[in-house]
Write a structure and sequence with these properties.
2 domains, six-stranded antiparallel β-sheet, Glutamine Phosphoribosylpyrophosphate, subunit 1, domain 1, Rossmann fold, globular
């Protein structure tokens, strides 16, 4: 593990009238690219015929104008950008997943992690199921298809399938005639709905994707809600709402989501700014300027500056053509990318005492690099402030922290971390202040607190299915 890995982004649209439906889906996914940079895909439904294009890479690598123009007009489309927190990076795990079954076709895109995925997959395999990949999304598709064979409708099958699933799942699903959006009963991951001027219905992981396609934000899906859209209109199933406490991932506000998004009615920008204001009160320091690490550290830096009265400065120039640092597969390459991605503005920081704001410290190597960048540009002091509490626990709901082994806060005290990253002082956001970010206690902070809202799975490895499968192969040989 390098630093924190992203979520996935999902997008779906039902529109009998929009021209170039695939292009609209592409634009929506482009606004969600920050959520997943391993692979992407789009499926368009044209009167029950599914056209699919998906591959490894960024949207700009996988899709060009010619590829988008090859899609039929269609009336329904679903799309996905992926960073895989369960299952390896390969073609078989790209989404949306498309399957055929006795009662029709289905395309499914998923954001989150199914915490009981290993248990479900084992049960399905013992019943004769065959899997092409190693992602938990394929498990969802299989269970829905299984339920569809004995249910009167696809939405009834989805509702029944939800009874088996634990953990985080925000999903857009397309049948031959319907578009379905669903959110798990805890509401771990965001999912919202919007409308175009012609009445077309759009679903997306974040509201920023609605704005990108010109859709007006309508509302967030409730935790446990299922919304179905077809030629007869919109129907909602709330039979799973309220059966679990709402536990939206607090790190969506701190890091994952884009600053211009609204999640469950809360502005991500305002939440991050509030974090910075709390840091200024909890960890004051005499300094000359406040600098945020782009992008998610900028809002918190602004809040720190406003609360403390210390001037805010950009401090860094970000190379917009380089993805987030964890995209690089090797530690050495990753450190090189930090230098390529961030350049300190010497005229701003030279001779200054700098308060440096970032969203998190996972392993610590990137933080050390950034501190050194400021010092090399002439900063006399670097005081680091983190807009989240220390990471001390694995996450089973979509963040790629599957072990405590590489979490620096599990191995070292705050003073030791400060020394390791080379900062003059270090302060984290207190755990008890997280509720101030969103004005509620209805969130999941298990990666910080260790208080999990669902049972902890027995197997916690990122690629949960490789070891059990290899073990079974060994058994078969003997």
């Amino acid at each position: 593990m390098a630093e924190l890995h992203e979520e996935c982004g999902v997008f779906g649209i039902y529109s009998p009238s929009v021209q170039n439906l695939a292009s609209l889906c592409y634009y929506g996914l482009f606004a969600l690219q920050h959520r997943g940079q391993e692979s992407c895909g789009i499926v368009v439904n044209d009167d029950g015929v599914f056209s699919v294009h998906k591959d490894l890479g960024l949207l700009s690598d996988v899709f060009d104008r010619e590829t988008l123009q090859k899609f039929p007009q269609g009336t329904i489309s679903v799309g996905h950008v992926r960073y895989g927190t369960t299952g390896g990076t390969n073609q078989a795990n790209t989404q949306p997943i498309v399957i055929n079954h006795m009662k029709g076709k289905m395309a499914l895109a998923h954001n989150g992690n199914i915490s009981n995925a290993l248990e479900l997959r084992t049960r399905l395999e013992l019943g004769g199921a065959l899997f092409h990949g190693t992602s938990d999304t394929e498990i969802i598709a299989y269970i829905v298809a299984q339920q569809r064979l004995k249910s009167p409708s696809i939405e009834a099958a989805v509702s029944k399938a939800m009874d088996s699933l634990e953990g985080a799942f925000s999903v857009v699903l397309m049948s031959s005639t319907k578009l379905i959006a669903l959110r798990d009963p805890h509401g771990f991951r965001p999912l919202c709905m919007g409308t175009l001027e012609d009445g077309s219905i759009v679903f997306a992981s974040e509201s920023c994707a609605l704005h990108a396609v010109g859709a007006a934000f309508q509302r967030d899906l409730l935790p446990g809600e299922i919304i179905t859209v077809d030629e007869d209109g919109i129907r909602t199933d709330r039979s799973h709402c309220g059966i679990r406490p709402k536990t939206m991932c607090i790190f969506e506000y701190i890091y994952f989501a884009r600053s211009d998004s609204l999640l469950d009615g809360v502005s991500v920008h305002e939440a991050r700014k509030t974090a910075g204001q709390i840091l200024a009160r909890r960890h004051p320091v005499e300094a000359d300027l406040v600098v945020g690490v782009p992008d998610s550290g900028l809002d918190a830096a602004l809040g720190y500056a406003q609360e403390s009265g210390i001037p805010f400065s950009l401090g860094f120039l970000k190379n917009r053509y380089i993805g987030r640092t964890f995209i690089s597969p090797g530690q050495g390459n990753r450190l090189d990318l930090v230098k390529l991605k961030l350049s300190p503005i010497e005229s701003e920081v030279r001779g200054k005492r700098v308060v440096l704001i970032d969203d998190s410290i996972v392993r610590g190597t990137t933080s050390g690099q950034i501190v050194n960048l400021l010092r090399s540009a002439g900063a006399t002091q670097v005081h680091m402030r983190i807009s989240s509490p220390p990471f001390r626990n694995p996450c089973y709901y979509g963040t790629d922290i599957d072990s405590r082994d590489h979490l620096i806060a599990c191995q070292h005290s705050i003073e030791e971390i400060r020394e390791l990253i080379g900062a003059d002082s270090l302060g984290y956001l207190p755990l008890e202040d997280l509720k101030e970010l969103i004005g509620s206690i209805a969130f999941c902070s298990a990666c910080f607190s260790g208080n999990y809202p669902t049972p902890i799975p027995a197997d916690t490895a990122k690629d949960k299915f490789e070891a059990p499968l290899s073990a079974r192969r060994k058994e078969n040989k003997t």
